[in-house]
Amino acid sequence: MRILVVGAGAVGGWFGGRLAAAGFDVWFLARGAQAEALRLRGLRLHGPEGETHIPEPQLVGESMPEGGFDILLVAVKMYDLEAVVPRLAALAAPRAAVIPLQNGVEAPTLLARRLDPAMVCGGLAKIGAVLERPGVVTRVGSMAELLFGERDGRPSPRLEAFAAACREAGFTAACVADIEVRMW
Q1: What residue ranges do the domains of the chain occupy?
Q2: Crossing angle of helices 10-21/157-168, nearest 10°?
């Protein structure tokens, strides 16, 4: 399973960093000062579980994996979502799952209009995290959970596999049948 984290700020940086630290094939799509910090100093995570350093996170743009990404975890701000859609389309594997983590319920609908609707899932991140400075994410509190699911509620082997990877990385995750209700 190849995972792309789109937006490596507090939310994307923390969840993607935990997955990368656990040995999963995680890549980050970042820009500006955050991309530069990841390139030069890596990604540092601070929190109740201690400190984790990913010295050389894989960055899209420096090199590119063949075949696209199986899971695209989209953690940009809602106002930046429209601008990343062309990149998502170009980077997704044919049967990819695109999991938006923006607050609110609009992101999956927006993405389904621009991408293959079968790729687009619902997602919800529950975490208290802050980007202290480029390349450094601090988690506050005990909550760190991802919920996601197919928008039509059907069982999803691709999302169950991703949930298992998340749990192996040390945080709570579940594929749920009622993701759209939970996003409300």
Answers
A1: 2-183
A2: 80
Which positions ≥6 away from 56 have C-beta within 8 Å? 42
Residue 62: pLDDT over 80: no
Rounded Cα distance between 70 and 33, Å, is 27
Q: Round to whole Å and give the CA distance between 84 and 77.
A: 10
Q: 2-183, superfamily in CATH?
A: NAD(P)-binding Rossmann-like Domain (3.40.50.720)
Comparing 60-64, 95-99, 105-109, 165-169, which segment has the lowest mean pLDDT? 60-64
Query: The pTM is what?
Result: 0.96
CA 52, distance to chain mean position in Å, is: 18
**pLDDT per residue as tens digits for the range 105-154:** 999 999 999 999 999 999 999 999 999 999 999 999 999 999 999 999 99
